[in-house]
Design goal:
Blueprint lengths: L4 E4 L9 E4 L5 E5 L4 E6 L2 H4 L12 H14 L13 E5 L2 E8 L4 E3 H7 L3 H20 L2 E2 L9 E4 L5 E3 L6 E2 L9 H6 L10 E2 L4 E2 L2 H17 L10 E3 L5 E3 L1 H10 L6 H11 L10 H5 L2 E4 L2 E4 L2
Parallel strand pairs: 1-5
Antiparallel strand pairs: 2-3, 3-4, 4-6, 5-6, 7-9, 8-11, 9-10, 12-13, 14-15, 16-17
Helix pairs in contact: 4-6
Length: about 300
């Protein structure tokens, strides 16, 4: 059983804290410089963001109603990959903040990939994520905001994976109002697709975890080779979705060794189709028919 301290919130807690991010979600995050990170709940006015395409901030009151129960439920979560709260700070029985232990020797996923920018590393890390996410799903935990690389940490020494956005997870019966911005921007938005979530209830299926992994794989594997393209070879649409010229796209799939394969078809749908049937897949399934050699996907025979 995990220990969870309940404390009274006081603004002085932040006297020596360093702001990490105000983000676009429900929290501002600070480093307390004592081995802990604190996430402080924003006011409803601070949460409103007219540029947010998902319009989830109307769920603020619903989120706050479930937050205390979800944080308390953390005592039942015992997965090494999920960093759980170690203290809750209350103000008149209302959650104002919670802390998690700071992770040493870790960088966020985006920085790790930038430092190890090759397909072999990308695939191996995402396979590890697949394993940990599958285990979390079996324990009634869903992590729909994996597309935010700051929510995924990689230990630079042992390459272990840590997920840190506890409040953004769907834990047991307590919903999540997050969804991967990468899914929303990199592929066709899923905000209206009932297969994946229901905004009114805040319940999100674990298909979003699979979609996040798939989108991350596409995003990182494509980005590794963007420096091979000229500035006129690709653009980004109004949603931030990467659009390659078709001739460049086919040169790209040839370059990484997946031309005339199902994976090339999936890529084409992600890049070009206005409406797509999302692959119900994991990174392991993607790699099942391929192996990596010299940063190329080679069809298995």
């Amino acid at each position: 059983m995990n220990n969870l301290k309940i404390r009274k919130f006081n603004d002085s807690i932040l006297n020596n804290a360093k702001l990490i991010t105000r983000g676009s979600g429900f929290f501002s995050t600070y480093d307390l410089n004592n081995g802990n990170i604190i996430k402080v709940v924003k006011s409803v006015d601070d949460c409103y963001d007219s540029s947010n395409a998902l319009f989830l901030y109307s769920t603020y009151n619903d989120f706050m109603d479930d937050l205390y129960a979800k944080l308390m439920y953390s005592t039942n979560v015992d997965l090494s990959s999920i960093i759980i709260p170690n203290a809750i700070y209350l103000d008149k029985d209302i959650v104002r903040a919670y802390t998690v232990p700071k992770q040493e020797n870790c960088v966020n996923l985006d920085k790790f990939i930038s430092l190890n920018n090759n397909l072999d590393t990308i695939a191996s890390i995402l396979i590890k994520m697949t394993k940990e996410i599958r285990l979390a799903n079996k324990n009634n935990i869903n992590m729909p905001d994996l597309g935010n690389s700051s929510n995924v940490l990689v230990n630079t020494k042992n390459k272990s994976i840590k997920f840190i956005d506890y409040d953004g997870m769907q834990i047991d019966k307590y919903p999540s109002f997050c969804i991967s911005s990468l899914i929303n921007n990199q592929v066709v938005p899923v905000t209206r697709d009932k297969r994946f979530h229901d905004i009114k209830s805040g319940m999100i299926t674990n298909n979003t975890d699979k979609l996040s992994l798939y989108s991350l794989f596409i995003f990182y594997s494509t980005r590794t080779l963007l420096n091979e393209f000229g500035s006129s070879d690709y653009t980004f649409n109004s949603n931030g979705k990467l659009i390659l010229k078709e001739s460049v796209f086919y040169n790209y799939t040839k370059m990484i060794g997946i031309e005339n394969t199902e994976l090339e078809d999936d890529l084409y749908r992600l890049f070009y189709c206005e409406k797509i049937n999302y692959p119900d897949t994991s990174i392991k399934k993607i790699l099942k028919t391929h192996y990596i050699d010299n940063n190329r996907f080679i069809k298995k025979y």
